[in-house]
């Protein structure tokens, strides 16, 4: 059931090109979120931040992806002291590769946006677990538990 995670290259908050394949040999927690500076996305990022040492101890790298640009990512990271890279998918090409760019509805309006999703990728670059339509509460605990299982 494992499938290869689509490789990609996106710029991080510093304008540096980051490829998924750069992290072979580590687990990768690749999470897609709708927008910097919004309440749910801030909570999610801060949960990952607060447990960052645990992730490092489990040999995992965290990468956040949204359609925000590098400048906005830089502000978000600075405001919340985030220790991991946020990648700018302004053309939502990677979101489409991962199937998280979807038709959404809010207040009766339909629009395309990112469905909050997380992919756990193993050291060989395979997707070993995915969470779709993530609810922020408790999600961080689920991801850590899945990683701990892989490390067992």
From TrEMBL:
It is an enzyme of class 1 (oxidoreductase). Its EC number is 1.11.1.24. GO terms for cellular component: cytoplasm. The active site is at residue 41. Keywords: Antioxidant, Disulfide bond, Oxidoreductase, Peroxidase, Redox-active center. GO terms for molecular function: thioredoxin peroxidase activity. It catalyses: a hydroperoxide + [thioredoxin]-dithiol = an alcohol + [thioredoxin]-disulfide + H2O. Pfam families: AhpC-TSA. SUPFAM superfamilies: Thioredoxin-like. Residues 1-152 form the Thioredoxin domain. GO terms for biological process: cell redox homeostasis; cellular response to oxidative stress. It comes from the Bacteria. Signal peptide: none annotated. NCBIfam families: PRK09437.1. Thiol-specific peroxidase that catalyzes the reduction of hydrogen peroxide and organic hydroperoxides to water and alcohols, respectively. Plays a role in cell protection against oxidative stress by detoxifying peroxides and as sensor of hydrogen peroxide-mediated signaling events. Monomer. Belongs to the peroxiredoxin family. BCP/PrxQ subfamily. PANTHER family: AHPC_TSA FAMILY PROTEIN, THIOREDOXIN-DEPENDENT PEROXIDE REDUCTASE. This is thioredoxin-dependent peroxiredoxin. It comes from Metalysinibacillus saudimassiliensis. The gene is bcp.
